[in-house]
Amino acid sequence: MILAIESSCDESALARFDPASGLVGEWVHTQIDLHKEYGGVVPDLASREHLKNFFPLLSAAGLSADRGEITQIAVTHGPGLAGCLALGMAFARSLAVAWNLPVVGVNHLRGHAYSPFIALHQQSPQGFAQAFEGLLPHLGLIVSGGNTILFQIDMDQQLTVLAETVDDAAGEALDKGAKLLGLPYPGGPQVERLAAGGDASVYDFPKAIAPRNERRFSFSGLKTSLRYRLEKMSDSELEAAMPDICAGYQGAVIDQLVGKTKHLIQAAEYRSLGLSGGVSNNRALRAAMARLAKRFRLSCHIAQPQHTGDNAAMIAFAAFADQAGLAQGDFSIEPALRLAQPAAQS
Known about the structure:
Layout: E1 2-6, E2 11-18, E3 22-30, H1 32-36, H2 43-60, E4 72-78, H3 82-99, E5 103-107, H4 108-114, H5 118-123, H6 128-133, E6 138-143, E7 148-153, E8 159-165, H7 170-180, H8 187-195, E9 216-217, H9 220-231, H10 235-267, E10 272-276, H11 283-295, E11 299-302, H12 312-321
Parallel strand pairs: 1-4, 4-5, 6-10, 8-9, 10-11
Antiparallel strand pairs: 1-2, 2-3, 6-7, 7-8
Helix pairs in contact: 2-3, 4-12, 7-8, 7-9, 7-10, 8-10
C-alpha cells in the first residue's frame, strides 16, 4: 500500500494506492481562491498553506499515529516551487521515520506521463501489466501551465522526450492570453468557457513555428499576436468579439498541439496515444486528440479530469508503474527536474 504526497505548487494532496486493487482514496486541498486575488500563485503563501493542510488531510485519509496498511511513501521531489516541494518532502520523511517505512521520490512530470493509465489499472489490476505492455510503444502529450512535452515510452518502458516548448507552455499561453483579455484567474478555463460560444474562423492567429514538422513547440508569438490585435480594438469591440477571439486563440493552441503530435505519429510506429496535464482537461483538446487517435487507429488514453492537475493519485501510481523513474535513498529537491533526457533530433 502506497501513501503519496503531492505539493509541487498550490495543491496539497494525498492518495492511497493498492497495487492489488487500485486507488483506495484521494484527498486534496486547493488554494485557488487564496491566490485568485493576486492573479497567480504566490510561492510563500502556497508553502504556508501546505504546512497547515497536510495533517488534516492525513486525518481525513484515516492515518495519524498509526500507519495502517501503508508499506511505502512516495513524494513529489520536482519539478515545482522549491518551498512547496521542501514541505512535502519534509512531511514524507517525517512520516517515514515515525512509521519506519521507505520513501521514494517521484518526478511530477513522470506522474503526468503515467496518469492516463490509472483508469486502465482500475479496470483490471491483475491484468494491468499485460494490458500496458500491449500499448507500447506509446506516444504521450503532457500539456500544463509550465510544460508542453511530447514523449514516448518504448517496448522496454524507457521514457524519452521527443519534443518540448522552447518558450511559453501551452497552459501559460492560455493564462497569459486570458490576462490580456481581462479575464479572472485561472484564465485557461475562462478562455475555454467563452470559446465554446465563439467561431474560431473569425480571427486568425499564428498556429505554429515554421517549419511545421520541427520537433519543438512555441507559443510566445501567439500571445504577442493577441496583444497587437487587442491594441487596435475599443472596449466595446472587444466585448462583442470576445467569444470569437477566445475560440480563435484557443484553436491556435490546440492546432499546434495536435499538428506536432500528428507529425510524430507519422514518423514512427505507435500503438497508443496519451494526453495528460492540467490543460488536458480542456474539452476541445480532449476531443481533438481522440479524433487523432481514431484516425490513426491508436488506442487513446486521456487522463481522467480529477487526475489532470496536481494530484497525489498520479504520484502513487507512478511509484507503482514507473520503477525506473523513482529516486531512492538520500534524494534531493529538484525544482527544475526534467522528465527525461531528450532524444536526438533527425
